Amino acid sequence: MAWIQASIEADSKIAEKLADALMEAGALSAAIEDAWAGTTQEEPIFGEPGEPVDRLWSQSRILALFAHDAEVALLIAAAANACQQPMPVFTTERIEEQDWVRLTQSQFEPIRISDRLWITPTWHEAPAPNAVNLQLDPGLAFGTGSHPTTRLCLQWIDAHLTPGATVLDYGCGSGILAIAALKLGAGATTGVDIDPQAVRASSDNAAQNGVSALFCLPDDTPPTQVDVLLANILANPLRMLGGMLANHVKTGGRIVLSGILAEQAEELSAIYSSWFDMDPPVFDEGWTRLTGTRRQTV
Q: Is 232 annotated as a binding residue?
């Protein structure tokens, strides 16, 4: 079976409404992307929880999928009419049926973090059998090693984690940081996330990697202090959670923060300097890793 994919140019003010109208008119799917993606005019969009951000690009493109025998022009016209908009400019192409699972898997290769640490999808042979290989599949949960923020944290764990150190991974997502820490010699390790699905995924991923950690929701976090606290979340929650996170770190213990844009590094470092002696920030593709050492509490 084949499908027809329509590429429709749309202003950001109408793109979301038009995509919904296309679904109502009979499209099988409708996705919105940057019309300038892959060019020098590509427009990066970053958002923060709780902050009102226009999540669409100034010039958007809707990719709508239709059945092979659909009257695409008529359906697009009906959707535009429902939005009280003129007929948009669009192009179409035929999409042949494929083995989408195999095609998707072929796009994800093992990720090298360092000479001794790799992230390898379960369907792929380990490229460095003698290295520490984390088995994680893309798309199961946030944090499978491809994003700079995860990579920055993994590189710190690989270079600085002391064997036997206790670890708290706050905002664990897929559990990748906790799992990496355990496979690199950490002691008792806890992962915390606000999403029950992330807690379940982390537990499953840990079992798949042959390690064991406590994964739980925030209210179930043990009232203990650890040697290393990892928090790869976002700047807005990190602003609010500073005191709480600091209370979980032993005097002389280390904190590792990421999910922070480069332009937010100075502000976040200043906030955490209330409790930690902060190191210079480390940057990767516009993102930041901040680290610090817990000072003696008075």
A: yes
